[in-house]
Prior knowledge:
Elements: H1 2-23, H2 28-47, H3 50-53, H4 62-86, H5 88-97, H6 100-109, H7 116-133, H8 148-170, H9 177-201, H10 209-233, H11 240-263, H12 269-286
Helix pairs in contact: 1-10, 1-11, 2-9, 2-10, 4-5, 4-8, 4-9, 5-7, 5-8, 6-8, 6-11, 7-11, 7-12, 9-10, 11-12
Amino acid sequence: MIYLLLSILSSSIIFVVFKLFKRFEINTLQAIVVNYFIACMVGFFGYLEPEDIGEIPEKPWFIGTLILGALFIIVFNLAAITTQRSGLSVVSVATKMSVAIPVLFGIFYYNESAGALKIVGVILALIAVYLSSIKAKSGIAIKKRNLIFPILVFIGSGIIDTTIKFLESGYVNKSDVALFSSTIFSVAGFIGVIVLSIHAFQGKLQITWKNIFGGIALGIPNYFSIYFLVLALRNNDFDSSTIFTINNVAIVLVATILGIVLFKEKLIPKNWIGIILAVISILLVANS
């Protein structure tokens, strides 16, 4: 359980960093690319020996990390488009409600438990995510022509979590967790460089130190959010469907509390209802 708590804490710190991006006008794409390399370096230099790196292409999970690295960049860009067209709340809901995909995968593919308490807990978790994320009393409004983007964010985020679970359970040895995590970020980083190179060719790239520092601040907790999540999934005391549900809902819960404490955010009644349901859902799923 300690690894799950550390993953939740790391992901919540990411929320704080993203909030500071807006305050300091940091270019999100540049910071994201730098973040991937920083996350990669944290794993490579903090947990690995030089000879481990040369073995990466021979690992059974290597192809999977190429897919995950590409998905990281694709989903990020889809989230950026969704934010521009429909707002940040829509992205938050689409990302966190995607937990339904790995939960269903765990239940049907790995034959994980699906008792009444868990089912009710998961349903309450999805409702809690929605209510905690919306910032307008009228809820979320999406124009039909923009609906495809949050749907793709939902699917992409769910596929990322599901793929991590699939690779972790069948291909990643315990000694390879750090190497596996770092490789995902390195692939995403290299793809990000290609994207930035295209921007540079188009004359749209202007790198500044604050964007680099923003990437450093994001990269460290980002690495540990994945690293500790993988370790949490290796815990035989809990099903992956339980881990993913608690992880996603707790991140929303902690991020909401941090928003109140650090950024003086105001919550509407629906948000408070979402927080209460989040706590109830965590208790139900954890004890199912």
